[in-house]
Structure formats: C-alpha cells, structure tokens
C-alpha cells in the first residue's frame, strides 16, 4: 500500500475511534454485541483489503494496525475524559485506577475484601470516594435516604439484559417491580410465616440428625457452614417449591452442586456486575458455565413444581406467583432468586453466630440461661413469640449480621442528580452506602465496635456511654428494595440458634485460629468464609439424640 493510502487509513482509524467514544459516551452497550460488531467490522475490512490490488502490507497486518489505532484512540479519549476536570465526578477523590476504569472495582470485589479497601479509602479521603469512573461510595448515614427512591444499577442484571423480569434483579419499570413485590408479599404475611413453622421444625430436627451423623464420620467435627447450607436449601425447597423437588441435601449431600453454583454465580455478579459489558462477554463463554447450570437447574425445579399434580401442604412461593399470573419464564427466574435469597445469608449469619458463641462461651452460657428460663424442656416446643421476646438472641443475630454482612448495594441517581449532606451528586452516578464502615464505626456502635458484644442491643446496652444505632445495621437494606424475607429470616435464625444452644455444648476445633477466621470473613455478593469453620457439638448432660424420636 502506498504511503498516502496508509496515512488515510490510519486517520480513518483514529477518527472512527474518537467517533466511537462520542457515540458510547453515556450509553450502555452490551459487551457481547459490541464484540460481535467489532469482529464483523474487522472481518469485513480484511476481506475488502484482500480484494484490493497493489497492497504492500498483508491484509492481516493492515487490519490489525487499523483496529489497534481505533482501539487506542477510543481508550485514550475515554481515559482523558475520565481524568479531566470536566468529568462530573472530578471533584471527588479516589484511587487513580478507579477513576480510569470500572475494572478496578471488579478486581477489588473479586478479592472479597472490597469493604475493607473502601473503609481505608474513606479514612483517607472522607465520606465521598470515587470508586469507579462513574461510581461513588458514601460513608454517611444520610445516604440511607437514597435507598428510598433510587433505582438499582446495571450490576443487578442476571446476567444479561433479557425480557425476563424478576424480583431483586433490575427491572425496566418501577411499577413492574412494585407489582412483583406485592405478589411475593403474600409469602411473608404473619399467617403465611406461621404456616411455615412445621417445615422449619422438621428441617431443624433433621439438621440435628445431620450434625450427629456427619460428626460421627468426621472425627467428631462438623463443617458447620456446609451443614447450614444444606439445611437452608432443604428448607428453601419447601418454602419456594413446596418440597416437590426433594432436594434433601442434608440426607444425600449436594449431588448437583447447588451450593457451589449458587455461591459462584453470586460472586460473579458481584465482581463483574460493575463492568456489565464484560459479564455479557463472559456469559457467552465456558467461564460462566456454572451460572448457566444454576439457571437451568432452578428453572427445572420451577417447571416441576408448576407441573406437579399434588398441591403443597402449605402455600409455597410458587402458589403466590401462579395466583398472581406471573409468566412461566419469570417464575423460573424468581425461583432461582428465592433459593439463593433463602439460603446464602441465613446460612452464614447462623454459622457466624455459632462461631462467636463458641469463641466467647460467656455469651453461650448467658443465652442458654435465658432460653432455659423460657423453655425448661430443651427438646420441647419453641414458640416464635416467646423467642422474639428474648432480646439476647436478637443481639447475637444482630452482631453476627453487623460484623459479617457488608453488602455493596449500588443505586443510580436520577437525571437531575441528588444532594447528600449538602454535596451534589450528578445524575446517572452509581452510588452505594459503605455499609462495613457504617456498621463498624464508633459513631454508631460504641464501645468496642469491632467486637462481638450482643448486649449492646439490650436496653441497658454496654453501660451509660453505649451507642447502638439500629438504623446503621444495613444488613437488610432499606426502602423499596429492602429485604422481603427479614421477618422470616429472623424467625428461622432464632429458632435454629435456640434449638442448638438448648441441646448442645458447642466448641471450635482444637487449635482453631480465631484471628485468621475473622480475617477470612469476606464478601462476594453475600458473606463468604475463607477459613473452614469446623466445630464440635456435644449433647448437653441429660439431652439425648434418642429423645428426638421420629420428629425428624
Ligand atoms: C440473614 C438473612 C438475610 C439477609 C441478611 C438478607 C439481606 C437482603 C438484602 C441486603 C437485600 C437487598 C438487596 C439489594 O438491595 O440489593 C435483600 C433483598 C431480598 N431478600 Fe433478603 N436477606 C436475608 C434473608 C432472606 C430470606 C430468608 C428471604 C426469603 C426468601 C429473602 C428474600 C429477599 C427478597 C425477595 C429480596 C428482594 C427484594 C426486592 O428487590 O424488592 N431474604 N435481602
């Protein structure tokens, strides 16, 4: 190719790169579509060059140079703008790489330690930190007001834009979400929750049998989070699909890898949701095969439930969705969300509660004394109202949530922007509450904000200087997307904790590294435990496994 054609081609590549930046600016484009478009363009250019006479360079080399110049100009324009004083978030401090690319946030999220990184950044820069080209983390309780009316960010698409609408995931219409929330709400009325008690009791007796059995083959130790996961999936199967799928993880183990695929999918969304274009691409390749598996598996469960001739003994989630006229594809997606929602958070909160009680047995004994006064028979019935009247049990659960659940819940500001603490945040900015910093700040929880002190939640607290700001516990979120299952979750956690504390002495594996365990409480969409939590449960004197009889 002669020099003038060369120069012309390079100029076209550079100008088209800048034009692409102008077009993409402020637009959301699907990464897989963009990749296909560019592949098609590069392919077309290659074919045209092949047919052009008099080329000195090979068509492949010329296509590569053209594409590289285009990509370089697009990237440079993007970076210059994001670092420039004209960017709407230019006045907010934050890490250099975070200002350039959302991949910084994706990387930090993948480590599970995003909450600690944010905490350090807030300590250095103050309450507003730029954590992405277009994203702010806010360490101020005033940001709670944002959750009342702001919509969810793109990271809530699972995993790509499609026409399926589901609770929890980003929906295109506010009304659609409100209506779906109303339909789901049927499952969480006081009478519906109380109708779920027999399933909760039966599954908890089975949990105790499971602990017994696994300890007997595990050298006296139980992998507690795993047992709780299996308990919560079995119970979730009852609550969501009326038990027709016979998951029975406590009995059979997790033969379909439901727990692992769920954890993996949640972590992928939490990591790459901040760079949705990348998730769109990943969705097309085997890296996300576990996410596909989860979608397929839970869709099959929903279809089996809908096709089942026998109605469930008490109304399950699908009963409400069917009566609400929810389309089949939406029911399948809602079923997936429900199984994840019903299992992941409850499991880890319970495991952490047991860990804290075993690590600090004075609280185990205090809680047991209180429980024994209310329930003299350790294996007798446990009424929910009597459990709810024991503030220490909620204190234990709240501390486990406060120290273990640090959610990152991004919302998008409306076109005109919003004000927080007198600071204007421009429209189309992703904002998120720094929940870990809020939940461990001495301004909200004092004294010993980093320590497990359940009595801080009791009326007398930890003395006259106690600060326990209940609104600063962000574990169930706030506003129009707040957790629908909060009451159910508390009921379940109180019940299981009471059963275990009344029946067993619990202790950590000998030599357990408490420090490493605390370090390993990370967040990948939901709390994850990096260090295995192996514990021993021993029947208390006078309480025997045989006493369970046929209750399980
Ligand atoms: C310890 C237990 C639990 C915790 C800490 C928890 C936490 C949360 C949080 C933080 C959200 C809001 C997410 C966001 O705004 O992005 C949420 C939403 C939700 N949770 Fe829970 N959850 C728990 C248990 C449950 C249970 C047992 C259910 C019952 C199936 C449930 C059902 C839901 C639903 C349906 C939503 C979506 C609400 C909406 O988008 O309108 N959760 N949960």
Compact summary:
InterPro entries: Cyt_P450, Cyt_P450_CS, Cyt_P450_E_grp-IV, Cyt_P450_sf, Cytochrome_P450_monoxygenase. This protein is α+β, with helices and mostly antiparallel strands.
Give an overview of the whole structure.
This is Cytochrome P450 monooxygenase. Pfam families: p450 (PF00067). Belongs to the cytochrome P450 family. It comes from Trametes versicolor. By secondary structure, this protein is α+β, with helices and mostly antiparallel strands. 54% of the residues lie in helices and 9% in strands. The chain contains 23 helices and 14 strands. Helix 2 packs across helix 14 (276-282) and helix 11 (224-241) packs antiparallel against helix 17. The model has no long low-confidence stretch (mean pLDDT 94).
Give short descriptive properties of this protein:
54% helix, 552 residues, 3-stranded antiparallel β-sheet, alpha+beta, 9% strand, 5-stranded mixed β-sheet, 23 helices, globular, binds protoporphyrin IX containing FE
Q: DSSP helix count? A: 23
What ranges have pLDDT less than 50 throughout 5 or more consecutive residues? Answer: none
- Assess the beta-strand content as a share of residues: 5-15%
By DSSP, the count of extended strands is 14
Structural class: alpha+beta
Note the gap between the termini. Answer: 81 Å
Please state the average pLDDT score.
94
Profile the largest sheet: 5 strands, mixed
Strand order of the largest sheet: 1-2-8-5-3
Inertia-based shape:
globular
Helix content: 40-55%
Bound molecules: protoporphyrin IX containing FE
Compute the gyration radius: what is it?
Answer: 27 Å
């Amino acid at each position: 190719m002669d020099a003038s054609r060369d120069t012309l081609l390079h100029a076209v590549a550079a100008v088209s790169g800048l034009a692409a930046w102008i077009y993409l600016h402020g637009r959301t484009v699907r990464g897989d579509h963009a990749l296909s478009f560019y592949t098609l363009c590069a392919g077309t250019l290659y074919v045209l060059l092949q047919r052009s006479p008099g080329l000195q360079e090979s068509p492949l080399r010329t296509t590569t140079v053209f594409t590289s110049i285009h990509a370089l100009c697009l990237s440079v324009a993007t970076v210059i703008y994001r670092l420039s004083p004209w960017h709407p978030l230019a006045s907010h401090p934050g890490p250099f790489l975070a200002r350039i690319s959302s991949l910084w946030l994706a990387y930090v999220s993948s480590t599970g330690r995003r909450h600690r990184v944010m905490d350090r950044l807030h300590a250095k820069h103050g309450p507003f930190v730029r954590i992405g080209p277009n994203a702010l983390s806010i360490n101020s309780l005033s940001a709670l007001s944002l959750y009342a009316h702001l919509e969810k960010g793109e990271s809530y698409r699972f995993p790509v834009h499609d026409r399926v609408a589901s609770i929890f995931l980003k929906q295109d219409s506010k009304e659609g979400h409100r209506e779906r929330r109303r339909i789901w709400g049927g499952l969480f009325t006081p009478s519906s929750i109380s109708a779920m008690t027999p399933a909760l009791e039966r599954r908890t007796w089975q949990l105790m049998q499971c602990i017994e059995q696994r300890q007997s083959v595990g050298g006296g130790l139980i992998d507690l989070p795993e047992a709780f996961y299996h308990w919560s999936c079995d119970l979730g199967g009852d609550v969501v699909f009326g038990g027709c799928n016979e998951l029975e993880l406590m009995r059979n183990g997790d033969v379909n890898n439901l727990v692992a695929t769920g954890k993996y999918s949640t972590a992928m969304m939490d990591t790459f949701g901040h760079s949705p274009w990348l998730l769109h691409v990943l969705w097309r390749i085997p890296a996300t095969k576990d996410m596909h598996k989860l979608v397929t598996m839970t869709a099959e469960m929903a279809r089996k439930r809908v096709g089942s001739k026998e109605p469930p003994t008490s109304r399950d989630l699908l009963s409400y969705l069917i009566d609400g006229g929810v389309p089949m594809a939406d029911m399948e997606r809602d079923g997936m969300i429900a199984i994840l929602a019903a299992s992941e958070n409850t499991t880890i909160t319970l495991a952490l509660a047991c860990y804290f009680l075993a690590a600090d047995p004075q609280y185990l004994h205090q809680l047991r004394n209180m429980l024994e006064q209310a329930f003299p028979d350790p294996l007798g019935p446990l009424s929910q109202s009597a459990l709810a009247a024991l503030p220490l049990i909620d204190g234990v659960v709240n501390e486990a949530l406060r120290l273990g659940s640090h959610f990152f819940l991004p919302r998008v500001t409306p076109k005109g922007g919003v004000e927080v603490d007198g600071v204007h945040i421009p429209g189309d900015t992703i904002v998120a509450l720094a929940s870990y910093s809020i939940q461990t700040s001495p301004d909200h929880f004092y004294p010993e904000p980093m320590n497990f002190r359940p009595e801080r939640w009791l009326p007398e607290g930890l003395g006259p200087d106690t600060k326990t700001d209940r609104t600063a516990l962000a574990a169930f979120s706030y506003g129009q997307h707040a957790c629908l299952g909060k009451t159910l979750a508390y009921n379940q956690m109180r019940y299981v904790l009471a059963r275990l504390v009344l029946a067993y002495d619990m202790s950590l594996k000998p030599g357990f590294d408490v420090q490493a365990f605390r370090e390993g409480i990370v967040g990948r969409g939901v709390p994850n435990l990096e260090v295995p939590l192996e514990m021993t449960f021993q029947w208390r004197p006078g309480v025997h496994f045989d006493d369970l009889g046929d209750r399980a």
